[in-house]
Amino acid sequence: MNLKKIALATAAGASLFAAIPAFAHGWDHGRYYGRYYRAPVVVYPPAPVVVAPAPMYYPPAPVVYAPPPPVIYAPAAPVVYGRVPVGPHAALSFGVRF
Q: CB–CB of 31/40 below 8 Å?
């Protein structure tokens, strides 16, 4: 039990010793004056004045309607007039086997 306590204390001390350089400089980096934190003051130069010409307004483009494209139909399917073979030896096959 004593060995566990010594090992834990040594590990805690070593990790604290390894973390010392992280706290060496402090968090303020030279911006902490007095008791409270004050943000740095930034002064920007005035924006340049840009003089642009007045906007030009154009009328809308004329609307032009083109004639519709010609309608092209597919040729008619051939029609076969006749009787459907019906009988004891008649069979219709679609090439599908089950």
A: yes
